[in-house]
Amino acid sequence: MEPWLLAVFPTLSDQNHSMTPKLKTVCVVGLGYIGLPTASLLGTKGYQVVGVDVSPSVVDTINQGKIHIVEPDLDILVKSAVNSGNLKASLLPTEADIFIIAVPTPFKDDHVPDLSYVENATRAISPYVRPGNLVILESTSPVGTTEEIVAVLLRESGHDIENDVFVAHCPERVLPGRILIELVQNDRIVGGINAQSTEKAAAFYREFVSGEVLKTHAKTAELCKLTENSFRDVNIAFANELSFICDKEQIDVWELIPLG
Ligand SMILES: NC(=O)c1ccc[n+]([C@@H]2O[C@H](COP(=O)([O-])OP(=O)(O)OC[C@H]3O[C@@H](n4cnc5c(N)ncnc54)[C@H](O)[C@@H]3O)[C@@H](O)[C@H]2O)c1
After folding, report:
1. Which of 35, 127, 135, 215 is the most buried (most CB within 10 A)?
2. Taking 50 as the threshold, does the pLDDT of residue 19 lie above it?
3. Best residue for ligand 1 mutational test, from 29, 31, 33 (most atoms within 8 Å of Cβ)
4. What is the pTM of this model?
């Protein structure tokens, strides 16, 4: 096992994960590049995790302790979490202390965001949400999604989201290829729909994140993630343009960059 993996996830050497005192229950909805690493990380940190996916083959694969996506060392983490009994995959949600929604948020035609996955996931967990629970949207989402879709749908199905059920956005900022290390070491932005939700969500992330947990409002957290993505896009586009100019002028771009 890689030494860095043991340093970040010391409980991997302990198949029962008995070093960790807590046994909070977490339901992670969407077991892709974000949801599965998150679910297995929590499983190895002493949480009881049920991972939910609409795909039967994804659920079967994970319950065998295997993975359906490509990410370094994720297979080790998933196997460990499943073998310890702390991670189970399911087609249906279950009651939990904390719900994490990590479903796709793609674009439709004309760059209109498709929020149907977030809506479906929220409707799916709603019957299992109880007073005192925390619902976190991790999917990259347009400004207002946490308040106007997640919170509104929960309220419509009878939950007292002003006092009893806490709702927050915590965008995921990991880079594929480094997901496991970044899940733990990155700073996290946590934005609740109200102050209590922010506090609850921040306390949760502080339990397994070694980076800073930065508190804000849900809308600010949503825009922060979109700003990061846009900044990266602009830089990639700029680098592409630069390489086109270099090709045309027969300049070595790799010589140019350190000179600039
Ligand atoms: N992949 C990344 O590097 C990355 C980084 C940061 C943020 N994000 C964001 O995280 C979110 C999730 O992205 P991803 O890359 O994990 O997606 P993904 O496509 O890898 O996985 C999504 C999973 O959700 C499942 N799913 C869809 N609808 C569902 C539902 N209603 N209930 C349960 N499961 C459902 C799918 O079957 C799939 O397995 C997106 O908003 C994405 O923009 C992704």
Report:
1. 135
2. no
3. 33
4. 0.93
